[in-house]
Queue: 3 jobs
Job 1
Amino acid sequence: MKKVYRIENLCCANCARKIEEGIQKIQGVKEAKIVFMTMKLTLDVEDGMLDSVLAEAKKIARKVEPECEIVG
């Protein structure tokens, strides 16, 4: 299942890369891509795992950048 999310309060491309790398390690993630210029996260996850992956992705984003939010 593929879904696109908006990212708010992301300060730099380096933080985007760190968040993207962290999200790619979550179980059930087929692909995660952050485009810093558009502030968008594209997630491709296994069926039925979107909610748990998204919750974990939000934790990773806040760990890297405390003000960062992933919104639907």
Note: The helical segments are 13-24, 50-64.
Job 2
Amino acid sequence: MITRREMVQMGLTASVGAVLPSSRVGAYLAKEPEPTPRDHDFQAVRERILQAIAHEEATGVAVAVAHGGRIIWEEGFGWANRESGLKVTPHTPFSLASITKPFTTTTLITLVAEGKLSLDEPANQYLPKSKLVGPNGNPEYATLRRLGAHAGGLPSMFEHYFSDEPTQPPNAEMLLHDYGRLAYPPGSCYEYSNVGYVALGAIASNVTGVDFRALITRRVLEPLGLSDSFFGTNAARLKNSAVRYDGSGKPIPYYTTSTPPSGELYASAHDLAKFAMFNLKTRVKGRDQALDTGLIDQLHKPVFEGTSGTATTFGWFVGRMPSGKQVLFKSGGQPGVATTMYMLPSENLACLVLTNRSNGRDLAFGICDQIIKMFLPGWTQPSEDIGPSRSPFVATSAFLGQWVGALADGGANMQAKLEIRSSDLATLTLGDKWAEKISEMQSEGTALTGKTEAKIESADAIRNEATMLSLKLLPQDGKLVGRILATGKSPGTLLPYVLTLNRSSM
């Protein structure tokens, strides 16, 4: 399984004013929080961050802490753009990567509030053109709620495009046409899926007639007063935003992705703290409560629970401390980005850290740990692993033998042959190529996972030189169903191809 840890793009149409209300989510937070005296000494955290920057383990870092409905600390450190001398402040927009997802689901919730959507209806009900298809599951069970909780049966994906490349990102309709194929029956397993968020963005645009970038701005960013936040395609605002750097501190050229609603929002630490307070139900007195508490609860309601006790929600992850205290959290990671945020509703506490380095994850999580322990000495991070535990693969009768079928998605349509001889010997053949041995075979619940290398006849795979393959196959009604993720030359690239295999009579 590709876990969340391993998952490492504003046009405004003429109809916006007619379609969108002036305020939907601003009922909770639309003005700057008033300053409050600091009750905690964050000097040790400052020293930790400054040391990491001095040792060139970090480039830029922004931190914010909200407690009791107020931002009690926010600060920037290091460089947003080292080459131009632009320093980080609490108002510096950073690429959020996957922390974009809760903003996307909040946008959908505003449409639920108006009766335009139902989270428990099939996504295809709102996708008139490029619909989700099988055969590895029934698309009728791929609901909006499941897509937002990574349990809709769609596979993982990450693909980025540099501005000087001749090929540029597809629109949502094209992406769903090429990759909107179910790898698993919806609800059967967890698979972190950016494709599902493309579907959610397309659905929101379809029911309003508004480009998703404009929609999220009008529905969430403007009502909440998040003036530092924008979609990453806004070239004018990128000039004052954090540049992305690789693990060695080298700037990464600007890129966009094929799945914007999953990870292309920029926001400052200040804005993200305000968004956290909205989720913690901080209200502004005297304003119409347009989005009620029950709808915010729908964002946080567990949908798919893993064996660790952590569950996915419509946009978030939710877990519990040993004491039973609930923790809502989300992180983001892609080339040049490592971000994290935690919210503890019982304490009315939120902590978030933004970094602009590929390898900033440990620092970001460590800073949040250090801060939260000031409030809760017994704090421990809940697990981010939703999938079942892994163990050495055991070749049961459900797997042993020869299998034939097809590999599809991304324009690929190849014959596939799988032979499983024993618990440590299996091969995969694609098209008319030779059989390749599958290595690192493991059991993940009832699934078989493994790795191999082969060439997939797909334009995206060829463009990305994606030949390193990761398999995940589930027994399902006498078949083996699942996906192959092809890893490309560019860091983080994951291209999904769906496998459907039947037992061979030979």
Note: Residues 1-24, 30-37 have pLDDT under 50 and may be disordered.
Job 3
Amino acid sequence: MGELDLTASWAGISAVVVFCVAYALVISEEFHHLRKCKPVILAAGLIWAIIGFEYTRTGNQASLEPAVREYLVEYAELFLFLLAAMTYVNSMNERRVFKALRVWLINRGFSLRTLFWATGVLSFFLSALIDNLTTVLVMSGVVLAVGGNNKRFISVCSVNIVVAANAGGAFSPFGDITTLMVWQSGILAFHKFFALFIPSVVNYVVPALFLSIAVKNGAAEKQAEAVEMRMGAKRIMMLFVLTVFMAVSFHNYLHLPPFMGMVTGLACLQLFGFYLRRKETEIAANSHQHMAGDVMPYDTFREIARAEWDTLLFFFGVIMSVGGLTFLGYLGGLSQFLYVELGPTVANVLVGVMSAVVDNIPMMVVVLHMNPVMGEDQWLLVTLAAGVGGSLLSIGSAAGVAMMGQARGSYSFFSHLKWAPVIALGYGSSIWVHLLIN
């Protein structure tokens, strides 16, 4: 919090209005197609410009730069961690790892109901490793290929995959941005998050049981041609596992931020990429083939360029905007109301519900900036609630928004909303189980 309490001043009120307008544009992205990073980055600049003007006017400008740098460091750690993780995921995608997985599933000859459960369970566990957004992009391909013109099957499976991906991401520091932020902040140790495994399973299984009833147990007739993974695919997967191990080890044993381990792992990928590129170029030259289009030699920097830059820049806007509101003094009063007057359990459950409306990332940024005094069980609760609360609405998570883009015409805001009561039942059940066992 800054030296001045500007919550009731023109500066504070103006900053809140700017943030609300920006976030209204983020929430309505589906309708106007303005990338979500653009309004929040502008909001961050305007909020700090308002703060800078007021502090300079009153002669308190010395405290501004240290405050901005503090929030910038927070963002830089998250940015470098995610950039390394996204590069690995993009590299595995380029090496056809996920395409091979999709084809394997399609060609198993599963019934529609078996495929419903297979895609859901795989989404749950895959999300814990490669994040919920990438999981949806992988699994949606399976559902769309098998579903064909069966819009009901695609719709129900889409809801199932979104819920599973969000639930799977909640018990792993690598599965969701919210869990990653809590881990990187040093509030909870890496192994502590696995206490959320059973509540996360409950959060997925309860609505899935109801959803499965809507799937007719017919045969899936679609077949796909076999896909062979490209050279180095398995070694890149092994490097990714090693990188995750390094991130955890750097944090737990060397007491360094996790991003240091991830960036070190990215360097290992780049060195292997150098070898892979030379090898593929040599093979192409010997066979007198020109590599073009999909068969270009592997290039690490091409995969870095394919990172989700809209998402990475969105985090900058959110962290700096919420940081500005914290500096103005707003979060102190909000924290007092939520965590003292209402109590931490009610407050954390409400954070999850709000995540369905305004996305879980800004909600978790707000909670971390409030830094309320509460035990590990409550920090686990808010991590769970923010992670799975977004499943209540299709716009509440990156997974839901991505699925609406992939399965347009079959899966929409209203087709998801129809299942909101059973998803809410899963949300409530997972919180009850967490409070019971943790």
Note: The chain has a mean pLDDT of 88.
